[in-house]
Amino acid sequence: MIVYLSGGIQGYGYDEANSWREEATIKLKNNKHKVLNPLRNRMWKDAKDQQEFQINELAHRDYVDVERSDVILCECTNPYRNYWGTITEVVEARRLGKPVVAFVGENRMKEDNGEHYSYWMDYHCTKIVATMDEAIKYICEVLDYE
């Protein structure tokens, strides 16, 4: 199964945007899944494997990656970020009939604290959980049809 790693990039440094993706990649590959990381070969001031892309090229590649994937793993843990690209990928995955499993953090699971995720996430995601480990467990135990 191919898993696309959707989540915050804009406004983050490379390490901050990629750290959860590296951890998820290891865990998913240990469960025999392939991973598409949108940061691969991407131009970044502090990235080791830089390649210069135009914004439209990056967005096009992200759309193609969503289409190539079997499932989307989505990080939306920061209640103060807009996640524009992430939400676009989630909506595209839903349009294509792809399952989306999002992890939003413990605080965002509580509806009464002002940091709850959007009802749009409820509608477009197959499953929303608190942690990345819960999301990966769901992907491996429930969505792994192979």
Overall description:
With 146 residues, the chain is an alpha/beta fold. The chain has one domain (2-143): Rossmann fold (3-Layer(aba) Sandwich). Helix content is 42%, strand content 14%. The chain has helices at 14-30, 55-68, 84-95, 119-124, 132-143; strands at residues 2-6, 34-36, 71-75, 100-103, 127-129. Strands 2-1-3-4-5 form a five-stranded parallel β-sheet, with helices on both faces. Helix 1 links the parallel strand 1 and strand 2 (34-36).
Q: Estimate what percentage of residues fall within beta strands.
A: 5-15%
Kindly state the number of beta strands. Answer: 5
Structural class by sheet pairing and helices: alpha/beta
The biggest sheet, with number of strands, parallel, antiparallel or mixed sense and barrel status, is: 5 strands, parallel
Reading the helices and strands in chain order gives: EHEHEHEHEH
Architecture (CATH level 2) name: 3-Layer(aba) Sandwich
The level of helicity is: 40-55%
Strand arrangement within the widest β-sheet reads: 2-1-3-4-5
The shape, in one word, is: globular
Overall domain count: 1
Number of discrete helical segments: 5
- Outline the low-pLDDT stretches: none
Distance between the termini: 8 Å
**CATH topological fold name:** Rossmann fold
Class in CATH? Answer: Alpha Beta
CA gyration radius, whole angstroms: 15 Å
Give the overall pLDDT as a whole number.
85
